[in-house]
Amino acid sequence: DAGVTQSPTHLIKTRGQQVTLRCSPISGHKSVSWYQQVLGQGPQFIFQYYEKEERGRGNFPDRFSARQFPNYSSELNVNALLLGDSALYLCASSLDVTTHTGELFFGEGSRLTVL
Amino acid sequence: KNQVEQSPQSLIILEGKNCTLQCNYTVSPFSNLRWYKQDTGRGPVSLTIMTFSENTKSNGRYTATLDADTKQSSLHITASQLSDSASYICVVSAAGTYKYIFGTGTRLKVLA
Predict the structure, then answer these.
(1) Which of A78, A88, A103, B27 has a CA 20 to 30 Å removed from the CA of A10?
(2) Cβ neighbours of residue B88 closer than 8 Å, sequence gap 6 or more
(3) Which 3-state string (H, E, C) describes chain B?
(4) What residues 38-77 of chain B have any CB closer than 8 A to a CB of chain A?
(5) Residue A51 and residue A37: Cα distance in Å, rounded?
(6) Cβ(B24)–Cβ(B34) below 8 Å
(7) For the segment B69-97, what is each residue's pLDDT rounded down to a tens digit?
(8) pLDDT digits (tens, 9 = 90+) for A14-63
(9) pLDDT below 70 — which residues of chain B?
(10) Which residue in chain B has the smallest CA separation from A91?
(11) Is B49 close to A41, i.e. CB distance below 8 A?
């Protein structure tokens, strides 16, 4: 079975541009969450979606938005890119929305560089 | 404020040696604590998950301990290998929430 897949793996943008990152969860997983990981830091929570609805949002500006499609895949959009948005963007999938004991599986990430 | 702190920030050991990484948290109410291994530029991979009632869990050469009273956890790596070189991240979640609180990780380097 395929794991969590993310695309693109690497991309370079300039300040002010917009970017869309894509994530396909593990088959059967209905929850997708997004994280930003700046070099040398731990991942920071951005969004969680479950059954196509936003269930949680981290402390990120409105330039960040996301959605989940009927097939449970997800997109993360970032508008008006800033240099500080350069990071590894991780997508994680899980069976459900709670965090009790459910396993959280991560993709390999999308490395965004903003010049 | 829910926080997860890890120590040391970085660690260098020789192949074959053991090491212990520390994690202290202030997350409440506590649900579970996870340890992840993250190779440079890759996504984190789960090593262990422990709930309130568990105080030790092993995964091969990795053994995690949890003291819910003192809110501390440790990850012990036995007979280290070069492939253990990675960042090890402690993640804690609060009961009834969707959020995972990540530590900043310990960067381990194993030398031949």
Answers:
(1) A103
(2) B6, B21, B35, B36, B37, B38, B47, B75, B105, B106, B108
(3) CCCEEEECCEEEEECCCCEEEEEEECCCCEEEEEEEEECCCCCCEEEEEEECCCCEEEECCEEEEEECCCCEEEEEECCCCHHHCEEEEEEEEECCCCCEEECCCEEEEEEC
(4) 41-46, 49, 51
(5) 25
(6) no
(7) 999 999 999 999 999 999 999 999 888 77
(8) 999 999 999 999 998 999 999 999 988 889 999 999 889 998 898 999 99
(9) none
(10) B43
(11) no
Q: Which residues in chain B have Cβ-Cβ distances shorter than 8 Å to A56?
A: 97-99
pLDDT of residue A87: 96
**Chain A environment of B31 (Cβ under 8 Å):** 99-100
